[in-house]
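INTERNAL AUDIT FORM
Audit reference: QA-55
Scope: verify that the stored structure record matches its stored sequence.
Auditor: D.O.
Record contents follow.
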Amino acid sequence: MSTKKLTSEDYNDYSSTENSPDHDSLTSSPDASSRSSDNFGNYQHLSERTGTSTLVTLIHLLKGNIGTGLLSLPLAVKNAGIVVGPISLVVMAVVAVHCMQLLVKCSHYLCAKLQKPFLDYGNVVMYSLEECPNLWLRRHSVIGRLLVEFFLILTQLGFCCVYFVFLADNIKQIVDVANATSNNCYQNTTTFESGSMDSRLYMLSFLPFIVLLVYIRNWKYLAPFSLLANLAMCVSLVLIYWYIFSSATYTNNLPPTTEWKSYAMFFGTAIFAFEGIGVVLPLENHMAKPQKFPVILYLGMAIVTVLYLTLGVMGYIRFGDEIKGSITLNLPACWLYQSVKILYSFGIFITYAVQFFVAAEIIVPVAVAKVSERWELWVNLAVRTALVIITCALAILIPRLAIVITLVGSISSSTLALIIPPLLEIATYYGDGMSKWTIAKNIVISVVGFVGFVAGTYVSMEKLVAQTISMTNITANNVS
C-alpha cells in the first residue's frame, strides 16, 4: 500500500499555469476551464507522459493492495461467518473500487478546470471544497487537505505498527519451535518451547535495525531491496496457497454468520486490507497512458478480490476456530513453512520503509523548514527516529496483531477509502447539478463507512481494555 508524494523528483513542479509546458496552448484553447468532462484530455497532456507502462502500473497496484491485510482475512471471515464473510468481501470490494474511481474522476475534473498537471489526494479535497457552493466550506478548504494528510499519516504509521507486531509474532514463533522443527509438513499442530522471550522484546530488538533502514532517504537506493521484498512475499504466498488448498477439507460446522461485535472486527480488518486508495492518484499520475488507468484499476482490483476471497475463505475452512491474526502463524512447524515466515517477514521489514516514506514526506519537511541549513540533516534523522520509536511504542502497547489491524482499519482506512470519496464527489459536482439518486448513494456509502468507523473502533478498544485488564491480573497473580 505504498504511495509516493507527487511533488517528487520525477516531476517538474507545474503547480501554476505559468510553469506549465502547455500554458500557451491551454490559454488559447476555447473554454479551457470548462467543467465538461471533454476537458479531461487537457489534463492528460499537462505533464510529461514518459511514465510507467500499463503492466508496471498493474504490478504496483497489486503490490499496493497486498500485504499483511491479506494474511489476516481468514480471521476476518471467521468474525463475519462463512456465508456473510465472503458476500461482505465482494460488496466491500465493489464499493472500495467505486470510491477509488470517484477520487480519480474528481481529480480529472479539477485538473481540467484549474489547469493543473496533477493533484494528490489532499489537494483534490482542498480544491473541491474551494469550488463547492457552501461559503463556510470554501473559507475552510485547507482544513480538508490537512484532514486527509492527517489520516494518511495515521494510516501509514498504523501500517508500521502492524509490521512491528507481525515481525515479532512470526520471528518469535520461529524461535519458539526451532528445536521441534522437522521436515514433516503434514502435522496439524505446532509445539512451542516454554520460557521464550516476550514478543515485545522482539519488537525492541527490531527497533535499531528499522531506524537504520528509514535513514535511507532516497527511494532509488531502497528500490532494489523493495524488489527483493516483493519476490520474497510472492514466493511465500504461493507456498501458503499450496498448503491450504492441498490440506483443506470441507466442513459444515462453521457458523454462517456472527454477532455484530464480531462483524465490526471483520469490517476493520477487511477495510484495512482493501485500503489501497492512497496509491490510486500517484499511480495514475505516473502513467504514460493515463487514459488506460480505469481498465488497470478494474483488472487489478478484480485480481485482488479473487486473492482475498480464496485465501480468506479457504484459510478459515482449513484452520477453523484455530485461525490466528496472520495465517502464517497457523503454518506447521517444518522447515519449508518456517522459511515462508522468514521470507514474508523480510518482505514486511523492507515494506516498513516504503510505508514510512509517505508519512516522512509530509512530516519531515515541516520540521526541517524550522531550522537553519546546518541542522537540516540532524533534524531530518531525529524526526525519522522519533517516528519509528512512536510506532514501536504503540505496537508494544497493543501487541495483539488482530486488534492493531482492526483499529487501524476502522479509524483511518475507513475514512480515506469510504467516508471521504463519496462526499468529495458531492462537493465537486453539486454546483453543476447532481441527481438525487447519486447524492443518496454517496451519503449511504459515507454513513456506512462512518458506522463501521465507530463500531470497529469501539469493539477494538473494548477488546484492548479487556486484554489489558486480563494481563494485569495475570501479572499480579504471578507476583503474589
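Auditor finding: record pair retrieved intact. The radius of gyration is 23 Å.
Action required: none
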